[in-house]
């Protein structure tokens, strides 16, 4: 979710669900150590519960990054062992680490020693020619022995050569059954599933089969209302704000962002899919896409985009 789940996206998503854990973009340990920490780690307290996702493969760097991040008060620190991008591979982290479970174990042990919140791992079922039936249980056994009790498993292999990151999210076949069997084999672990899940009904079905959690990425981004409004029912709670209520709740946040020198489109780019499938959704997207990135764009642009929805509803 790099370049997607930034702080503006997360604040927006939080308007629709109070309980779902929100994850940051992956931030490398080296960036935390040497980069602009405030820009990389700051977030609104309204985003809780929130997890910081870190990438890296050097136990000392990861330990130091975890120690630094502790001051920001995240609810969870997540090590990414699933991203297949070339950038990530060249740095020897992400999905390539599925080939090095002992190193991952060293990394998480170092992170746990510096963390006062849970350290979790997001992984794949394997990479390239690995046999997931062998690789995944071995990975879970070795990494959990280092102290991790919570895994989020993307139920696809990652092909490190020959497929783009986008293709790696779509082409390798899903294997939900293997993840379900891992939960049965490791009942003491919290096992969550990721990959290809597009609806709350599908999420509920997987939970009913014994999994502990479900992670949605692209579906939550491209059609947020359909999977975030109503998500709190999974916790037995009332729904969060609906799509229109979420827009209204964003107004003070947008005004504050603009007053601090920010651009409207930095927020609204994450809201383009909010009315997917509704009359006027195309007009909503068009107005925000064409006008929100212009200098001086303000809430009049938001009102114009909402006008497209109102006009379509009246015409219908």
How are the elements arranged and paired?
Blueprint: H1 7-14, E1 22-28, H2 29-34, H3 37-41, E2 50-55, H4 59-69, E3 76-81, H5 86-90, H6 101-113, E4 119-124, H7 132-145, E5 150-154, H8 165-168, H9 176-185, E6 190-194, H10 200-208, E7 213-215, H11 218-222, H12 224-228, H13 243-259, H14 265-268, H15 281-291, H16 299-315
Task: Name some characteristics of this structure.
single chain; alpha/beta; globular; 12% strand; TIM Barrel; seven-stranded parallel β-sheet; 316 residues; 16 helices
Task: Describe the model.
With 316 residues, the protein is of the alpha/beta class. It folds into two domains: 7-235, TIM Barrel; 243-315. Helices cover 46% and strands 12% of the residues. The protein is built from 16 helices and seven strands. It has helices at 7-14, 29-34, 37-41, 59-69, 86-90, 101-113, 132-145, 165-168, 176-185, 200-208, 218-222, 224-228, 243-259, 265-268, 281-291, 299-315, and strands at 22-28, 50-55, 76-81, 119-124, 150-154, 190-194, 213-215. Strands 1-2-3-4-5-6-7 form a seven-stranded parallel β-sheet. Strand 6, helix 10 (200-208) and strand 7 form a beta-alpha-beta unit. Helix 4 (59-69) packs parallel to helix 6 (101-113), helix 6 (101-113) runs parallel beside helix 7 (132-145) and helix 15 (281-291) runs antiparallel to helix 16 (299-315). The longest helix has 17 residues, at 243-259. It is globular, with a radius of gyration of 20 Å. The model has no long low-confidence stretch (mean pLDDT 93).
């Amino acid at each position: 979710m790099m370049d997607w789940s930034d702080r503006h996206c997360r604040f927006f998503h939080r308007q629709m669900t109070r309980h779902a854990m929100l994850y940051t973009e992956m931030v490398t340990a080296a960036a935390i150590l040497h980069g602009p920490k405030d820009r990389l780690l700051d977030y609104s307290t309204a985003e809780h519960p929130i997890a910081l996702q870190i990438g890296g493969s050097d136990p000392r760097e990861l330990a130091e990054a975890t120690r630094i991040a502790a001051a920001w008060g995240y609810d969870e620190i997540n090590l990414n062992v699933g991203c297949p991008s070339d950038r990530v591979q060249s740095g020897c982290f992400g999905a390539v680490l599925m080939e090095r479970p002992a190193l991952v174990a060293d990394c998480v042990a170092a992170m746990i020693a510096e963390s006062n919140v849970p350290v979790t791992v997001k992984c794949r079922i394997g990479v390239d020619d690995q046999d997931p039936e062998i690789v995944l249980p071995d990975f879970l056994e070795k990494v959990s022995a280092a102290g991790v009790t919570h895994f989020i498993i993307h139920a696809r292999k990652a092909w490190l050569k020959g497929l783009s990151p986008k293709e790696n999210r779509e082409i390798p076949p899903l294997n939900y059954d293997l993840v379900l069997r891992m939960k049965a084999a490791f009942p003491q672990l919290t096992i969550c599933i990721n990959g290809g899940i597009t609806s709350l009904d599908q999420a509920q079905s997987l939970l009913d089969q014994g999994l502990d959690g479900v992670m949605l990425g692209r579906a939550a981004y491209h059609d947020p209302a359909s999977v975030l409004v109503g998500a709190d029912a999974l916790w037995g709670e009332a729904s969060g704000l609906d799509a229109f209520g979420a827009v209204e709740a964003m107004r003070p946040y947008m005004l504050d962002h603009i007053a601090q020198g920010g651009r409207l489109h930095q927020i609204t780019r994450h809201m383009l899919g909010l009315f997917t499938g509704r009359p006027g959704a195309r007009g909503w997207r068009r107005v925000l896409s064409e006008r929100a990135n212009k200098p001086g764009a303000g809430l009049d642009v938001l009102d114009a985009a909402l006008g497209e929805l109102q006009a379509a509803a009246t015409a219908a």
